[in-house]
Write a structure and sequence with these properties.
The protein is α/β, with parallel strands linked by helices and about 475 residues long. It has helices spanning about 25-30, 35-50, 60-75, 115-125, 160-170, 185-190, 225-235, 275-290, 300-310, 315-325, 325-335, 340-350, 355-375, 415-420, 450-460; strands at about 55, 85-90, 130-135, 175-180, 195, 215-220, 260-265, 295, 380-385, 425-435, 435-445, 465. Helix 5 (about 160-170) runs parallel beside helix 6 and helix 10 packs across helix 12 (about 340-350).
C-alpha cells in the first residue's frame, strides 16, 4: 500500500493528533477514548505498511482498555488526564501482554510477561498500551525496518525509531522512547515530534539500569501531552533508584518566555549545511525580535570553556557506554553468537579495547563538563541548538560488499553532550529543511525539566516555523 502522506514536510502546516484537545469531548460526551483509539487504528492501517513503526500491536487489549476508560469518563471519574491515551512503547521496555524482543535476533520470541515500572504507572493512569514500537538492535546502531514518516527513503533516526515515527505519522499522540546518546531527541527532530529527554534518572527505567546515561522519555505531538505522560509516570513510580524523580507540576507548565538563551554549537556545528544553518539563524532572529537576548560562543568565556569541555562528547559517550556494556554483550555473544549483528560486534570491540583507567578518565571528563554546564546557570535560562545536524539523512540499507555505514540512523553530534551531562532537553519542531523536519532543542539545568518545557512551549506558541 502506498503511503498517502506527501513526501514534503511543511512545518507551517503540520497538523498532528493530540490527546489533550480530545479531553473536553470526553467530558462532554461528544467523543470517547474508544472512538479516539479507532481513529488511531485507522491511521495505522493506512500508513504502517510503509512506515513500519510497530513490532506488535495488541488491538484487542487496547480496545478493552479504551472501553474501560470510556466508562470512567462517562462516570466522571477518569484515573488521570491521560486516561484513555493510546501510547506506543519502545521495544526495549517490558510489557506483560506483548513480547520484548529489543530489535535483536538473539531475543526473538523473548516474552518476560511483566510490566516495567513505567508501564505499571501508565496503566495505573489509565493509558492504553497499544503496542511495541521498533527499536534498533538493543538500542544501539543496527537499524530496524522503520522509515521516516515524511519520506520513506530517509531514516527516522535511532534508537527510538518506531516511537518517533509512530507519533510523526499521526498513529498515536505519544510514545515512550529511551536515550543513551541521542535516541529521543534526534529521532524526534527527524520525525517532527515534541520530545522530552529528562534529567538523568527522572523517570524510572525499571530493569534497564545498566548504563549510566540511559534515560526514558516521551515523544508527542504537543508539549502538553509530552509533559502529562512524563509526570503521570513519575508521580506513580518516581525516578531511578536513589534519584528524586521528575520535578514539576501535575499539569503542563504554562508557556514562559526566556529572557536569555545561549547557543550551543557542540560537534554538530561544522556539520550543518547552508540550509540548516540558515533555518537555525532565522529562528534566532525571531527570538531576538521577540526580546530574547542570544549569547553566542564568543560572548562569554564560560560558554567557550563549556564548549571546549564537550568538544569530543561523541567519543566520550561511545567509550563510556561501550565499557559499561561489556559484560552484557559478552554474555549475549556467548549465548547466541549468531543472534547479533556485525555492527554490534564492532561496537563491542570498542569496549574490549578499553581498560578501567580509560573508563575512569572518561568519567572524569564527563564530570568536568557537568561543572562547566552548571556554571552557565546564571548566564542563561537555557541553551538552544539544533536537535540534529540537519534533517534525516537518506537510508536505503548497507551496500553489499561495501563497508558498513558508520551512522545509518544519523549522527549524535547534537545529542551526545546533553546525554553525558544528564540534563533535560526538549525537541521543538520548528523547521523544515530540504522538505524534511529538523527540530530545535532547548537544554536546561538538571531538574529544571518543567522550566525547560515551559520555555519550549513558548517557542512553539510564539515563533513562526521556518522553511529552508
Amino acid at each position: 500500500m502506498a503511503d498517502p502522506q506527501p513526501a514534503r514536510y511543511d512545518a507551517r502546516q503540520r497538523i498532528a493528533p493530540t490527546f489533550h484537545d480530545a479531553v473536553p469531548g470526553f467530558q462532554a460526551g461528544t467523543d470517547t477514548p474508544r472512538a479516539y483509539l479507532e481513529r488511531c487504528l485507522e491511521t495505522i492501517a493506512a500508513r504502517e505498511s510503509v512506515v513500519r513503526a510497530w513490532v506488535v500491536l495488541n488491538e484487542a487489549g487496547a480496545r478493552e482498555a479504551a472501553d474501560a476508560s470510556t466508562a470512567r469518563w462517562r462516570a466522571g471519574h477518569p484515573l488521570s488526564a491521560i486516561d484513555g491515551m493510546p501510547i506506543g512503547i519502545k521495544d526495549l521496555i517490558a510489557t506483560r501482554d506483548m513480547p520484548t524482543q529489543m530489535g535483536c535476533a538473539a531475543y526473538r520470541g523473548h516474552f518476560p510477561k511483566h510490566d516495567a515500572a513505567m508501564i505499571q504507572a501508565l496503566r495505573a493512569a489509565g493509558a492504553v498500551i497499544l503496542g511495541k514500537t521498533v527499536t534498533t538492535e538493543l538500542g544501539m546502531s543496527e537499524p530496524g525496518p522503520t522509515t521516516n514518516p515524511f519520506h520513506p527513503g530517509h531514516t527516522p533516526g535511532g534508537s527510538s525509531s518506531g516511537s518517533a515515527a509512530a507519533v510523526g505519522a499521526g498513529m498515536v499522540p505519544a510514545a515512550i522512547g529511551t536515550q543513551v546518546g541521542g535516541s529521543i531527541i534526534r529521532p524526534a527532530s527527524y520525525c517532527g515530534n515534541v520530545a522530552l529527554k529528562p534529567t538523568q534518572g527522572a523517570i524510572n527505567r525499571g530493569e534497564r539500569q545498566g548504563l549510566s546515561q540511559a534515560t526514558a522519555g516521551v515523544h508527542a505531538n504537543a508539549a502538553q501531552d509530552m509533559w502529562q505522560v512524563a509526570i503521570e509516570i513519575a508521580r506513580r513510580v518516581g525516578g531511578d533508584p536513589g534519584m528524586p524523580g521528575l520535578f514539576g507540576p501535575a499539569t503542563p507548565p504554562a508557556a514562559a518566555r526566556p529572557a536569555r538563551l545561549a547557543v550551543l554549537q557542540a560537534e554538530g556545528w561544522a556539520m550543518l549545511d547552508d540550509a540548516a544553518r540558515g533555518a537555525f539563524a532565522e529562528i534566532l532572529a525571531q527570538l531576538r525580535a521577540a526580546g530574547v537576548e542570544i549569547l553566542e560562543r564568543g560572548d562569554h568565556p564560560w560558554i567557550e570553556a563549556f564548549e571546549r569541555s564537550i568538544a569530543d562528547a561523541r567519543a566520550m559517550t561511545n567509550e563510556i557506554c561501550a565499557f559499561e556494556n561489556l559484560s552484557t554483550i559478552r554474555s549475549l555473544l556467548a549465548q547466541s553468537p549468531e543472534g547479533v549483528s556485525e555492527r554490534l560486534r564492532r561496537r563491542h570491540a570498542v569496549g574490549e579495547g578499553m581498560d578501567l583507567e580509560r573508563y575512569r578518565l572518561r568519567l572524569l571528563q564527563r564530570e568536568e563538563a557537568r561543572r562547566h554546564m552548571a556554571a552557565l546557570a546564571p548566564l542563561a535560562d537555557a541553551l538552544i541548538a539544533p536537535a540534529s545536524p540537519g534533517p534525516a539523512p537518506a537510508w536505503a540499507g548497507d551496500v553489499p560488499g561495501q563497508p558498513l555505514h558508520p551512522r545509518p540512523t544519523g549522527d549524535i553530534a547534537y545529542n551526545a553532550a546533553t546525554s553525558a551531562l544528564g540534563v533535560p532537553a526538549v525537541t521543538v519542531p520548528l523547521a523544515s529543511v530540504h522538505g524534511l523536519p529538523m527540530g530545535i532543542q532547548l537544554i536546561g539545568q538538571p531538574h529544571m525539566d518543567a522550566r525547560t518545557t515551559a520555555l519550549a512551549r513558548w517557542l512553539l506558541e510564539t515563533l513562526r516555523p521556518v522553511m529552508a
